[in-house]
Write a structure and sequence with these properties.
- With about 425 residues, the protein is mainly α.
- The chain has three domains: about 190 residues, Orthogonal Bundle (Hypothetical protein af1432); about 140 residues, no CATH class; about 60 residues, no CATH class.
- Helix content is about 55%, strand content about 0%.
- Helix 3 packs parallel to helix 6.
- The chain is globular and about 65 Å long.
- The relative contact order is 0.13.
């Protein structure tokens, strides 16, 4: 095999280098492809199971209807797999990336992420996507290298690269439309740079592969549509607000505040007009089986509308044939982006922004703060054996506080509260 053979894609658009694992394992089965094994490793991982008890937008215990991180993840995987397959991506690579995309998120959703980011400020910060890479390549137990270090699930290069939503270090990302400064999002901690460098071999600097772009859009589509569905069923949102000028202005303000000036106010207004004109839902929601069916059909139509628009626009630019890795960019029409942002704005204005002042969210941040401070101070006696605390001779090991943050981030909403009650005492508002 020549060096060119190593990087030249096969007929399916993937090269031998894309199928490599960080630690070689040898051929285990000819009945499944390396990418199929990647997906299976995610499905059977402990990190995926824990998502069933982690907050998506509303807490898992708030009612029986709302989505958890796990149900959201499964929905993202379904949308991403179909869109990726239509574009010629290997569906298992996209599926793996979608199943993995939220593994690093801590208890209590983005509220918990903000709390851990503050607590980890002195050790390189905390970011859910960087934590995902850490889980996949270090923390979730599956493969141990010959030198004794854990290499996590040891996925292929293509699957790992597809799971990296933000392929840059802290402070080195693009300018955020919301703040005008480099985005606070990032995809790798400093002590995970060796595997990041390996998986990004020959990748354009700062550019996501096509499979990661498909995963990212599937995530946007899923949570924008489904968060609105949850809000309607939970009585927090009446979609009739899209016809009222004062409420439309509230949505525009929410989009601008949370997501920046990606589209203009006029473009958002036009997107609202298109969504209303599509007549996807009926005025009023009474919770009946019929109303639930109409709402569910609306979510299905919206998902199809957004995914089909991206598929058609991408194919119009690149033509037929398999589109993989860095052979193409996903094309999302500007009108589609505006419609997705309208749905995000609805979720922000009527669910996410109002909850920020609720006493529950203050208590959640306090729970994580207390746990990190206690475990960082008391060390090994509070850490589970699988996490351990590196000894002084382990020069390459992460600092104690990072190990503590790793364990606290792995907790579910329920286990975080239970651990806090056991070691600290019941949290009070």
């Amino acid at each position: 095999m020549t060096a060119l053979d190593h990087i030249a894609p096969d007929v399916d658009g993937y090269a031998d280098a894309d199928r490599e694992r960080w630690v070689a394992e040898g051929e285990k089965s000819r009945e499944r492809t390396p990418f199929e094994r990647d997906r299976a490793r995610i499905v059977h991982s402990s990190a995926l199971r824990r998502l069933g008890a982690k907050t998506q937008v509303l807490g898992p215990s708030s009612d029986d209807f709302v989505r958890t991180r796990l149900t959201h993840t499964l929905e993202v995987a379904q949308v991403g797999r179909e869109l990726g397959k239509a574009l010629g991506c290997d569906p298992d690579v996209v599926d793996t990336a979608c199943l993995a995309h939220d593994l690093g998120h801590p208890p209590f959703g983005h509220n918990g992420e903000r709390a851990l980011a503050e607590l980890a400020r002195g050790i390189g910060g905390f970011e859910g996507n960087a934590q995902t890479l850490r889980l996949l390549t270090r923390l979730d137990p599956k493969v141990v290298a010959p030198d004794g270090r854990s290499v996590g699930l040891n996925l292929t290069r293509a699957s790992l690269d597809a799971s990296v939503k933000y392929p840059w270090r802290y402070g080195q990302g693009p300018i955020s439309p919301a703040s005008g400064r480099p985005t606070h999002k990032f995809g790798v901690y400093e002590d995970d740079l060796p595997v990041f460098t390996w998986l990004r071999a020959d990748a354009p600097d700062g550019r996501k592969c096509l499979e990661a772009q498909v995963m990212d859009l599937a995530d946007d589509i899923s949570y924008s549509v489904h968060d609105v569905e949850d809000a309607v069923v939970g009585g927090r949102l009446d979609l009739g607000v899209l016809t009222r000028p004062d409420e439309r202005a509230r949505v525009v303000e929410a989009v601008d505040t949370w997501y920046g000036a990606q589209v203009t106010a006029d473009e958002l207004a036009a997107a609202m007009d298109r969504l209303v004109a599509a007549r996807l839902w009926e005025a009023g929601f009474d919770g009946s089986r019929r109303a639930l069916a109409v709402l569910k059909d609306a979510t299905s139509q919206l998902i199809g509308r957004f995914a089909k628009a991206a598929q058609q626009a991408t194919r119009a630019r690149y033509g037929d044939g398999p589109l993989t890795r860095y052979a193409a960019e996903l094309v999302v029409p500007h009108e589609t982006l505006a419609e997705i942002l309208v749905l995000k704005g609805l979720a922000v204005a009527y669910v996410m922004a109002p909850r920020e002042l609720e006493p529950l969210y203050q208590r959640q941040r306090q729970v994580l703060t207390d746990l990190v401070e206690l475990m960082a101070d008391r060390g090994a006696e509070r850490l589970a054996p699988a996490w351990g605390v590196p000894g002084p001779a382990a020069a390459a090991a992460p600092p104690r506080r990072r190990v503590v943050v790793d364990q606290v981030a792995s907790l579910t909403d329920v286990s975080a509260v239970e651990m806090h009650d056991r070691f600290v005492g019941p949290s009070r508002g």
